[in-house]
Specification:
By secondary structure, the protein is α/β, with parallel strands linked by helices. The protein has two domains: 88 residues, uronate isomerase, domain 2, chain A (Orthogonal Bundle); 324 residues, Alpha-Beta Barrel (TIM Barrel). Helix 14 crosses helix 16 and helix 17 packs parallel to helix 18.
Length: 476
Amino acid sequence: MEYVSRHFLLSSQLARTLYHEHASALPIIDYHNHLDAKEIWLDSSPHNLTQAWINRDHYVWRAMRWNGIDEHYITGEANDEDKFYHWCKIAPKLIGNPLYQWSHLELKRYFNCDLLLNEDNWQAIWQITQTQLKKGTHSARKLLQNCSVTTLCTTDSPSSDLHYHAKLASSDCATQVLPTFRADELFIWRTIGDAGNYLDKFATLTQTDISSIDDYLEAIETRINTFNHQGCRLADLGLKQVAFHPCSQRQANKLFGQLLSGNALSNSQRAALDTYLFVSLGRLYHKYRWTMQLHIGVLADVNKRCVESVGSGSGFSIINDQLRTDNLAYLLNALEQQNALPKTILYNLNPAHNAVLASLCGAFQANDAGMGKIQFGAAWWFNDHKDGMEAQLTTLKNTGALGCFIGMLTDSRNLFSMSRHEYFRRVMCNLLANWVEQGELPNDLELLQQTIENICYHNAQRYFNFPAHHNVGASV
């Protein structure tokens, strides 16, 4: 049987026309993912589907736990074949889940395999994929090139030496691989157990003496400049708590000195430093013409017993229902008042906050950065499925400007997940066709074509200030 057919997710002739004639062949800009630049440089290939799908994907781990699989076969020491068997065993229970759809889409696209994942087929699937993987045709660079990925942005610590990005920049890699400045760890009063130790290492890295908040910001700009030289044009920050507490430079230096002395900070004092650093980072991103990404709404690692056993970021985080839109608006406004608000993408984990964030985007649009300066980001994490994508696109249609949207991303550690761009494009084309058939949109093929091509590729190409390929600094 053929589950992922040519018309997968396309329910009408118009949807099929829009996808096959206007969306499918467009190149990909994957501007947010968690791939490893080293693996791309080495042109590495997974030895089997367990390495590709299971070993680093907390989405899969969560699904396997839901189905009662022992941790030994998830993150434990079981061999790769046994782990794959247990994944296939529970796959039928995930019917309708995006993991089920993505996995079969990847089997079809990368291995031309139409077998359904289940307990009966697991050995055949294992053998088919093993045979093809051994040929070396599924290496990182070949896969990116075959998927027509023009630009790919990894997610990197401010302390990263960017060694492999430098190597890729001077190589013949067909895909432009650029770093992204992930700033979470810089909020040391919230994320680092030993702030003094972190600052010592950061000072050594940046060759600065950090004894004040001003010194700290100078060191941070040193790293931003290094990232910028290596082609970085995006920053990212996970806002688990959206705090706003106005803080002067003098107050910030006093609180930072208190931190250096090892004295505890109150919640309001941490909020003040949060605010000061957020605004300072925003000014720097604006200065360097970067885009600021804000991922909002995670309640992290709620199952403490399991986190202690398996580790943080292992599938025990959930949707947070506390947004504090007022504080987020105040943060953006603090930058806007200084004419220093960078291009910004807002991603929300709670789907109930779609309209709230979309309306916030509309309040801070400006003509200094072209159309769609503030973006209502693509459906993310628990929303990354057909219903979530349709909800995000519908909200943007209703409250913003759908034609300005910069499109999808993978947010993944799995190279095979580039097929999620196809998944999104099929969902979007089907949704637009439905709106046409319901009389909400005109049946104007030229208008629909322009909208689809812009969302899938051209808007992102225009929005991000990416350097010319192979014209990025090759040393750091």
